[in-house]
Automatic annotation (TrEMBL):
Domain CP-type G: 100-257
Protein name in the entry: Small ribosomal subunit biogenesis GTPase RsgA
The EC number(s) this enzyme carries: 3.6.1.-
Ranges where the EngC GTPase domain occurs: 108-255
GO cellular component: cytoplasm
Gene: rsgA
Amino acid sequence: MTINLTKYGLTTAVETTSLKEDGQMLGRVISQHRDLYQVITATGERQARVTGKLAHAATSPTAFPAVGDWVQVCPTADDQAQIEAIRPRQSVLARGAVNQHDGQIIATNINTIFICMSLNADFNVRRVERYLTIAWDSGALPVIILTKADVCTDLAAKLRAVADVSVGVSTITCSAETGQGLDDLQPYLTTGQTVAFVGSSGVGKSTLINRLLGQDVLTTKTIREDDDKGRHTTTSRQLIPLPTGACVIDTPGMRELQIFVGDLDQTFAEIATLSAQCKFNDCTHTSEPGCAVRAAVEAGTVTVERLQSYQKLQREMSYQGLNSRQLEQAKIQRMFGGKQAMKRVKQRYHRD
């Protein structure tokens, strides 16, 4: 059986930079269950584990494969395989991990992040800010998807609220029940594109993906009627090809999204601009004299809630207080698994 990996997001750029080692083949991680991976290759799906060498060289959890990664594998008996290396990542969406200093990768090599939020009682613009913060840092393009439009009675007000916190980000209103807005998703779902769906439990991610697939592939569950909050239905990340030629990555619902890394300047662009006008370079926007941000709050051009959200996320971010060299090292860690791994990749490129 021969698989056309273009269905799974293979592009010319990925193919031409893949390693040419004897006995190895290119594959993409399409699901993960603890230390066991499902990898799609040109010869079909294989269960795979990382080699002892790769595990030993990994200096953090982010240096292990994740859904969306392109990897070099060596086939073994019984249609299984060993993952020998991870190809350089084009984008990385990461979140904070409970009781861990390091982060947890949600998905890699994605072009677009669909940030899904339902237009019901669980609507929360502060949550949108959190998702945008990690999305802008990932290297992928964020798009806000407002689901369950068929049950919304105050759409105009909710759209205004979202617009206030998402300057420069496209917003699509849709309903999996009526089909509203599905056509607006299509420009992001062309051949070679990979899209990750993220959002809280019960917002309709799996239902929306089923509509795009044209069949019920993913298990769905309706939200609780008493509080409009959902329970987890998707329990692990998985990559699925669409009829359009794109791939989607469905992710488990995250009610509390912990920030590991993020781009606050992009998410809170107006506050970043005002900060440059503050009297002190290290202004915390609390009680310092000459604070342009506080002045904007007093003038009503920035809301108190918006500033509080910015300050809260700033305190949470693992990158807070790092200098430029430390920031670069942290980025290399996420993309390659460390400096030594990056050097090995460069050496292989030169050798090829």
